[in-house]
Design a protein that fits this description.
Blueprint (H helix, E strand, L loop, with lengths): L1 E5 L4 H12 L3 E6 L14 E4 L16 E4 L11 H12 L3 E6 L11 H11 L3 H13 L3 E5 L1 E3 L8 E4 L11 E3 H14 L5 E6 L1
Parallel strand pairs: 1-2, 1-4, 2-3, 4-5, 5-6, 6-10, 7-9
Antiparallel strand pairs: 8-10
Helix pairs in contact: 1-5, 2-4
């Protein structure tokens, strides 16, 4: 497949690039600063400059099978970057797998009481924008992943995805390793099995 990865220069985006190449896909890396996407010379990646806050500089994606978005709200980003990204992909009319956050919007209580408190403490000011971006992506037909806290660690052998409605509220704050999350995002990009809706990746 020809897979575009938005936010390819970030840690999760970079992991997605590596895994997609490992699986034999053609990868198009989308980012504001393409030179920050680093892969060995032996691995071919097409870099396209993509500033989500500037519609005129966002590239066409008509040659792309699916986009996986790994953008977040980075330090220095003004308000609106995340929703702008959702709008750019919605306008591109391409199948999208969108990375959101467990504990935002309709999943605000799904991570358990401790997790809810942590989200409000550390992500509180960004929650509203995350919710708005999810709504834009969902309206455009995306599969939205509400991922729990992302950590470094190995690929989980028990990884799976469940619809938000089927998630059992955990006692302890849930976590998932970055490579496990990236693997599940790519699984959905390849299969389209979950379709339009909110799902939760679990380890």
């Amino acid at each position: 497949m020809r897979i575009a990865i938005l936010g390819a220069s970030g840690r999760t985006g970079g992991t997605l690039v590596d895994l997609a190449l490992d699986r034999g896909h053609e990868v198009v890396a989308l980012g504001r600063t393409p030179v920050r996407v680093t892969v060995p010379a032996s691995r071919q990646v097409e870099n396209r400059q993509a500033d989500v806050t500037d519609p005129n500089s966002f590239p066409a994606l008509s040659d792309i099978d699916v986009v996986v978005s790994a953008i977040g709200i980075s330090k220095g980003d003004g308000p609106g970057a995340l929703t702008a990204g959702a709008r750019r992909l919605a306008a591109a009319d391409v199948r999208t797998v969108w990375l959101g956050a467990l504990g935002s919007g309709v999943s605000s209580r799904s991570g358990g009481l401790i997790y809810t408190g942590v989200m409000r403490l550390f992500v509180g000011s960004e929650l509203r924008e995350k919710v708005e971006a999810d709504e834009i992506a969902l309206k455009a037909g995306a599969t939205v992943f509400h991922a729990p806290d992302v950590t470094d660690g190995p690929l989980s052998s028990t990884r799976r995805v469940v619809p938000l409605a089927d998630l059992r509220r955990p006692l302890l704050p849930p976590r998932i390793s970055r490579i496990t999350l990236a693997s599940l995002l790519l699984d959905e990009a390849e299969s389209g099995k979950q379709g339009n809706g909110i799902v939760v990746p679990l380890a």
